[in-house]
Design a protein that fits this description.
The protein has 184 residues and is mainly α. Helix content is 57%, strand content 9%. It is built from six helices and three strands, in the order ααβααββαα. It has helices spanning 39-70, 79-88, 93-100, 104-116, 138-158, 164-183; strands at 91-92, 120-125, 128-136. A three-stranded antiparallel β-sheet has the order 1-3-2. The chain is globular, with a radius of gyration of 20 Å.
């Protein structure tokens, strides 16, 4: 989330010659989603793809930096697991895999790595002795909390010119997008 959204951009989120204003929606093409106007829908989705690509690229870079602060050997992809465990508490590996959208083998590998780093631990599930629950260790919770606080402070700085209602709306829309992707 820096000032280099697009080359030639002055931070308004506008790409020269794209016809896409600062809010990322082509407002001059007419015909919204479902109107059968093809071109306008394509422009809206192209603008969405472009902005999400920039956001995701930056988020990956930022997550890599932040995750190394939790532990130097931690993979950036594991940060989402720490977030989920901090928010929801003890969970089965299958629940985590379904939420994150990875297979059981990938989840097992990631959890094993987190366990070896001392960030998570497993315990038998009292409801089903054959299953295990994963949870943050005290060290994992402390390190994660420090990094999460730093990440939130960064968002506060970067979005200081935004109204709180705009931040809430962005969070709401991203949640809606994530729910849609989760459902497939």
């Amino acid at each position: 989330m820096g000032a280099d959204v697009h080359e030639g951009d002055k931070g308004e989120g506008h790409r020269a010659g794209s016809g896409v204003p600062g809010n990322g929606v082509d407002q001059g093409a007419g015909g919204g989603a479902g109107s059968g106007g093809g071109g306008a829908v394509d422009q809206e989705f192209l603008a969405l793809e472009r902005e999400l690509s920039v956001l995701l690229r930056r988020a990956r870079a930022s997550s890599g930096e932040m995750v190394r602060e939790v532990h130097p050997d931690l993979e950036s992809s594991a940060y989402g697991l720490l977030v989920r465990l901090e928010e929801r508490g003890r969970q089965r590996a299958t629940e985590l895999a379904a939420y994150i959208g990875v297979g059981k083998a990938t989840m097992s590998r990631q959890l094993r790595a987190l366990e070896e780093l001392g960030l998570v631990a497993r315990e038998p599930d009292p409801a089903d002795g054959r299953a295990w629950l994963v949870h943050l260790t005290d060290v994992g919770r402390e390190r994660f909390g420090t990094v999460r606080d730093a990440r939130r402070a960064r968002y506060v700085r970067e979005l200081a010119s935004w109204e709180r209602a705009e931040v809430a709306e962005l969070a709401r829309l991203l949640h809606r997008l994530n729910r849609g992707v989760e459902r497939g």
